[in-house]
Automatic annotation (TrEMBL):
Belongs to the PEP-utilizing enzyme family. Residues 514-865 form the PEP-utilising enzyme C-terminal domain. InterPro entries: ATP_grasp_subdomain_1 (IPR013815), PEP-util_enz_mobile_dom (IPR008279), PEP_util_AS (IPR018274), PEP_util_C (IPR000121), PEP_util_CS (IPR023151), Phosphohistidine_dom_sf (IPR036637), PPDK_AMP/ATP-bd (IPR002192), Pyruvate_phosphate_dikinase (IPR010121). Residues 418-499 form the PEP-utilising enzyme mobile domain. Its cofactor is Mg(2+). This is Pyruvate, phosphate dikinase. It comes from Candidatus Enterococcus lowellii.
Length: 869
């Protein structure tokens, strides 16, 4: 191996980063003794050196390439530059992570006007010229950027004029085609190099450069592949699938990539090169028919496929070529597959004793699980659809429906049996009923922790937030998106997993929640160290959470229990109350609602723990702002609209997120928190009388100062004692803890731990307050930050370990200094993020809590975190 080049027999599959996936696998297959045409790999490091400084090619790399070509000539006993015994090569890119279709390939390199003649003598005219014209086309496209279609166009014209297909061309006609291709080069102010070495050098440079082409960059962005890795280049001696009727080429998966069935799946074309299979000009035949056409070759293939699967312990996607009856394996890689197939294949491999359960758990990506429990778009259809805009992938799943702009319209259309997508600038508590009946929710504003995002995730409804390209005019019921104008009733499709919004209907695929998933998650639980709880408050969400395997409820947000028309009205009455009597009236009504809610909730979770958080948001969030709604509310409260309007205005805050919310509200107006704990304990006592013992866990939000916690806790305890007394029951155990969601709370965590029974990190607010990024406005800039590589991740989606993570770590350490065994959880949205979970495990968190639909993926991620320690 030279500094920049590795021959296939010198490498191994462990060197993916340096040799790229393709190069590493070619090396591995060569060493397994498979029939791989000889060749070498130019390393990814060379690519990055070249991209940094192009002179690197001439000063360092060229010499090594020349030496490698000499060696290849010796191995193959052929010549790359002489006129006889021709060696032709392929040049293929190959990055460390598979980037299908992103980089480029050139075949048949080494042919020129002269050598094609010799080649024709060795083989046949039609074959030799076919190879040459392919080289011109690929070279023109990859190296000089002359669109492939222009070549195809010339070919079609000639076929039409001569009234025959390319296969039927005689020598002169083949030459005409070559001449027209060369003319196309000239029209584009370039010439096709006749010297094979020049061809090779230009091709290598072009593949290097293709690392930075637009589609490669976009693909990397999309799949979070770092830009600094570079691509390797594989130079391999050509074998010819287009050299006659005992030749061919194909692509085969060792198992069915759609269903996972353990049976070869794929196709081949006789007398063809790989490009023909991809281009779809001729219809390939199913792999099974190779058994009849070339039985020995087929049997060899089956043997090699088995060796490869056994070796890689995974389903393989294999490219092969047959040259005059001799089989060559050109490439193998772990095959792409659907989520359903991924699960079946992995479990089958365990059953076949090829994988251990632990390996199986590490094999499935938690993201795959999202596809198993939510519908996804049919991939083929998506490529045809018109992309309207991209926002934040707030809640996974895929859905299609008619646009509606208000919750009322959503309900109305739903009642008519229509499927709707609720599109708003942002959602608010009043929209809840419309959100429930919608197939999907899209907001032009808001981040990953905005109201729409949190509620949609809770319900398992797909959702895009922060879709800034949409100008949503709720009053005129139109959306402007670039030049496209959308109106109510128009059909759009929402992909909540990618954040992409499309025009028109796209068919979805639903994967049944099968036994295989249950099996995998059962194994996952055996290895889990962190527990997984759920963020949920409605009985149906609690039930979903438990069905998905939650070990308890980490966060029941009580403000979500005031959504819905009837409750919001009482909340509004309370906030706008003119006297104590009206306040008490509303408070009493709310007590009734809450009591019944808590009773049902405790009953639903049974013996599992449930943390109930006291009211958090600022009061004006419950109030209407639209003139008509204010009018309607005034009517309900028997007031003048102007009066109500003035009161609402008075409650407005300049910075509500930093304002009168959380425990601050509890301190200035204790009666709401007192009502809430009274409701909690009244229902707990009712259950106790029915023989069900519960241990209420009450959580105080947004604490930044120990005195805040002490003050709230004191009056809560008074109310709880009073409730025991009123009910004439003996006090039973309960816990009062606090959320840690402000940087100051992290710093004084040791003090807070003195008077808190447990902690739960509210990473939504903690991220907001640490960065100073408004959680509802991050959609305005996060995509641009990502594009400019200022930030790789949205910190509301994946924990910022360097900043926010350090604060959490500090708080955990301090808390445990005060109370060694204190139970500490995470209930912000990153708690359900598989990429953040290993960090939480490392710093000693006890549980993560997330929306119900994220629980299965979190259970797997938790097991993976334990297994990869
Ligand atoms: C948080 O801040 O992380 C949290 C869970 O609370 P909320 O999202 O309700 O503010
Ligand atoms: Mg919070």
């Amino acid at each position: 191996m030279s500094k920049w080049i590795s021959f296939f027999e010198e490498g191994s599959s462990k060197e993916k980063e340096l040799l790229g996936g393709k190069g590493a696998n070619l090396a591995e297959m060569t060493n397994l003794g498979l029939p791989v045409p000889p060749g070498f790999t130019i390393t990814t490091k060379s690519c990055m050196n070249f991209l940094e400084k192009e002179t690197f090619f001439d000063t360092e790399l060229k010499q090594d390439i020349l030496k490698a070509i000499k060696k290849l000539e010796q191995i193959t006993q052929k010549s790359f530059t002489e006129e006889t015994n021709l060696l032709l090569v392929s040049v293929r890119s190959g990055a460390a992570s598979s980037m299908p279709g992103m980089m480029d390939t050139i075949l048949n390199l080494g042919l020129n006007d002269q050598r094609v003649q010799t080649f024709a003598e060795l083989t046949n005219i039609s074959f030799a010229y076919d190879c040459y014209s392919r080289l011109l086309q690929m070279f023109g496209d990859v190296v000089y950027g002359v669109n492939k279609d222009k070549f195809t166009h010339l070919l079609r014209n000639l076929e039409k004029r001569l009234n025959k297909t390319k296969q039927e061309f005689d020598k002169n006609e083949q030459q005409q085609l070559i001449d027209s291709y060369k003319q196309l080069f000239i029209e584009n102010n370039v010439t096709f190099p006749q010297n094979p070495l020049d061809q090779l050098f230009e091709a290598i440079k072009a593949v290097f450069k293709s690392w930075n082409n637009q589609r490669a960059k976009v693909y990397r962005e999309l799949h979070q592949i770092p830009h600094h890795l570079g691509t390797a280049v594989n130079i391999q001696s050509m074998v010819f699938g287009n050299s006659g009727n005992h030749s061919g080429t194909g692509v085969v998966f060792t198992r069915n990539p759609a269903t996972g069935e353990n049976k070869l799946f794929g196709e081949f074309l006789m007398n063809a090169q790989g490009e023909d299979v991809v281009a779809g000009i001729r219809t390939p035949e199913p792999i099974d028919s190779l058994q009849t056409i070339l039985p020995d070759t087929y049997n060899d293939f089956v043997t090699y496929a088995e060796i490869l699967e056994q070796h890689y312990k995974d389903m393989q996607d294999i490219e092969f070529t047959v040259e005059n009856g001799q089989l060559f394996i050109l490439q193998t890689r772990n095959g792409k597959r659907t989520a359903k197939a991924a699960l079946k294949i992995t479990l089958d491999l365990v059953a076949e004793n090829r994988l251990t359960k632990q390996e199986a758990l590490l094999r499935i990506s938690p993201d795959t699980i999202d596809q198993l429990i939510h519908p996804i778009f049919d991939e083929k259809e998506v490529t045809q659809a018109k992309l309207l805009a991209t926002g934040l992938p707030a809640s996974p799943g895929a859905a299609t429906g008619e646009i509606v702009f208000t919750a009322e319209k959503a309900k109305e259309y739903h009642a008519l049996g229509k499927k709707v997508v609720l599109v708003r600038q942002e959602t608010s508590p009043e929209d809840i009923e419309g959100m429930i009946v919608s197939e999907a929710i899209v907001t032009s504003r808001g981040g990953m922790t905005s109201h729409a995002a949190v509620v949609a995730r809770g319900m398992g409804t797909c959702c895009i937030t922060g879709c800034e390209a949409l100008n949503v005019h709720e009053e005129s019921k139109t959306i402007l998106c670039g030049n496209t104008r959308l109106v109510e009733g128009e059909v759009i499709s929402v992909d909540g997993s990618s954040g992409r919004l499309y025009l028109g209907e796209i068919p979805t695929i639903v994967v049944e929640n099968d036994q295989n998933l249950q099996q995998l998650l059962t194994w996952a639980d055996e290895h889990a160290e962190l527990m997984v709880r759920a963020n949920a408050e409605t009985v149906s969400d609690l039930q979903t959470a438990i069905d998905f395997g939650a070990s308890g409820i980490g966060l029941a947000r009580t403000e979500h229990m005031f959504f819905g028309e009837e409750r919001v009205l009482e909340m509004r009455r309370l906030i706008l109350a003119e006297d104590k009597q009206e306040f008490d009236f509303a408070l009493n009504k709310l007590l009734g609602f809450q009591q019944e809610d808590f009773y049902q909730m405790f009953k639903a979770v049974q013996d599992k723990p449930m943390v109930i958080r006291l009211l958090d948001p600022p009061m004006h969030e419950f109030l209407p702002h639209d003139t008509n709604e204010i009018k309607a509310l005034a009517e309900q409260l028997n007031r003048y609209p102007s009066e109500v309007s003035k009161q609402i205005e008075k409650l407005q805050e300049t910075n509500p997120m930093l304002g009168h919310r959380g425990c601050r509200l509890g301190i200035t107006e204790p009666r709401i928190y007192q009502m809430q704990v009274k409701a909690i304990f009244n229902s707990a006592i009712r259950l106790m009388k029915e023989g069900i013992i519960v241990c209420p866990e009450i959580m105080v939000p947004l604490v930044s100062e120990k005195n805040e916690l002490d003050t709230v806790k004191n009056f809560l305890i008074d109310t709880i004692n009073q409730t025991f007394k009123e009910n004439q029951v003996q006090p039973f155990p309960y816990e009062i803890g606090t959320m840690i969601e402000l940087p100051r709370a992290c710093i004084i965590a040791d003090q807070l731990a003195e008077n808190a029974d447990f902690f739960s990190f509210g990473t939504n607010d903690l991220t907001q307050m640490t960065f100073g990024f408004s959680r509802d406005d991050i959609g305005k800039f996060i995509n641009s930050y990502k594009e400019k590589e200022i930030m790789i991740q949205d910190p509301f989606q994946t924990l910022d370990q360097t900043g926010v993570g350090e604060l959490i770590k500090l708080a955990v350490t301090k808390a445990r200094q005060t109370k060694k065994e204190m139970l500490i959880g995470i209930c912000g949205e990153v708690g359900g993020d598989p990429h953040s979970i290993p960090f939480f495990q490392k710093i000693g968190i006890d549980y993560v809590s997330c929306s119900p639909y994220r629980i299965p993926a979190a259970r797997l991620a938790v097991a993976q975190a334990s297994l990869s320690k």
